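INTERNAL AUDIT FORM
Audit reference: QA-55
Scope: verify that the stored structure record matches its stored sequence.
Auditor: D.O.
Record contents follow.
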Amino acid sequence: MRRGAWAGAAAVLAAFALSACVPLTPQAESSSQAAATAGSAASAASGEPSAEPTTASAVPLADLNLLADPHGYEGPSTATIVDAAVEVLDPAPEPQLPVVATSHTRDGDLDVEVSDTSRVVAFDMSGSIAATLWALGQGDSLVGRDVAAEFPGTEDVPVVTGSSHTIDPEAVLELEPTLVITDGSIGPTDSIQQIADAGVPVVIVENESSFDGAGELARQVSAALGVAEAGEDLAAQIADQVAVTRAEIAAVAPEQGLRVMMLYLRGASGIYYMFGEESGADDLVAGLSGVDVAAEIGLDGMKPLTDEAMLAADPEVILVMTHGIESVGGVDGLLDAKPAIALTSAGQHRRIVDMADSELLAFGPRSAAILNALARAVYAPES
C-alpha cells in the first residue's frame, strides 16, 4: 500500500520546513463543532452518492461562470473551500471501550489497548487525523493537534507541533492525554516512543494520500476511538461525496483534459519539488478530469524539479500551496527563478492555482470540498 505524499515523504518535508522556517497553514475562520453538525452525514446504507452539495455554496459548479476555453485562460487563481467546517456525524456515536487497536509501527504491527478516549492528541502532516476524529463526532475529546489541523472549532485546541513539523513530547504529556493517534509523518521517532514509554497508548495509523485512503483512515481512527461502526459510515460518506463531486467536474471539464502538475515550493531554501504518481497529487488531477503529466513522464513520488522534466511535462495548470507560492515571490518570482516553468503552457499563461497548505493534500472528511474548490479555481476562476 502506498503511504502517500505526507507519510511517504515525511522526512523530506520535515527537512523542508526546518530549513524554510515557513509555517504551512493559514488562519481558518472561527466557528464551533455545533455549527459543523448542521450538515448531517450522507446516507451510507443506500450505497448511492448523496444528492446533497459537497460545499456550503448554493450555486452548483455547472451554474458558475465557467470558462468557455479552459485551455486558453490566462492568470492565477486561488482555490478556497466555501465552508471550511468539518461535517460531523449526527448523532455522534458513543465510544464502546475498551478496544484493541492496531498500531502500524516501523517494527511491525502492535496491538494497543485503548480504555479511555476522553483526552486525545492527534497529529500528522496534513491535519487529516484530527479532522477525521472531529467528523466522527469526537471533537470534544481533542485536547492537542498538529498545526495543519486548523478548521472551525479547533481554535482553542493546543498545537503540539511547530513550523518545523516535529513533535514536542513534553508538550504532549503536559496535556495528560489518554490516547495519541498519529501516522508516523511527524517525528522524531524517539519522541513518539517517549510518549509511549510514559504510559500513554499510542496508535499509529496508515494514512494514504488518496480519496480511498481517506475512507481507510476513517476506519482506523474510528477503531482506535471505539466507534468502529461510525467509521464505516464516514468512509461511505466520503466516497459518496467524492463521487458526486467528480461527476459534477466531469460534466464541465473539456473533452481534452487540462494538463496538470503539482509543485512543492519553499523559496527561502531554494526547494522546488514535483509531485508524481502515488503522491496524492495524482488523485487530485484525476478528480479534476485532468491529464496527469507527471505520470506521462514516468514521475513517481516526490522528485526535485528539473528543467528537462518540466519541459517534457509541459503542464497547462500548476497546483501549489499558498505559502509555497508566497515564499518564491508570487507567480512572477516563480517564473523568474525557474525559466523552464516560464516556457511551459502554464508559465506562459500564468496558470498557477494555489490552495491553503492545510487543505491541498488534506485527504479526509473534506476531500470532496477540497476537490470542489480546486475545480472552481480551475474551471470558473472568475465566479
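Auditor finding: record pair retrieved intact. The first helix runs from residue 4 to 8.
Action required: none
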